[in-house]
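Bumping with the actual sequence this time:
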Amino acid sequence: MAALDPKPGEHFLDLACGTGDCSRDVLRREPRARLLGLDFSREMLRRYPFSARAQADALALPVRPRSLDGAICAFGLRNMTDLPSVLAELGRAIKPGGRLVVLEFFRPPSGTRRFAIDGLARVLGKLVSGDRAAYDYLAASIRAFCAATDLTKLLVAAGFGGVTVQPLFPQGIATIVKGARQP
């Protein structure tokens, strides 16, 4: 993922790594980067193609304090119940100046109609899984999640600065939020 801007030898966490798409992208950009894939789901970890992986809770990352140059989380924060604590734990693990990149479906700004979220979720659900229950869940989880602007406030509270928001999809539902760990 370009937003992470990996350098040779840097250590990154792929939080809620799933099948490893983000890890693959980071390694395509910088083959000498080192990644740890972490997921709560044992089943997802079985699909993660790299050996450096761990089943763990995002509230207790299995890394030393200030040991990571950065972390990425794609479409995983929406499923975590205690965002302030997760972000604080990432802040503990990331070195000062290290980057955190979140790619997520955020609740759109007020005024965006519910059918826009539901329509997006149906299209994505059908493309990804073909399972109606999966896209019903996706729509509900987007509506229940925070807006990108809310996440920026939580990141600042967790010790991240220089937070930027980059909408990628109409209505700002799919968005990249990036910040750097402050000293």
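The tokens above came from a reply further down the thread. The chain is about 35% helix and 25% strand.
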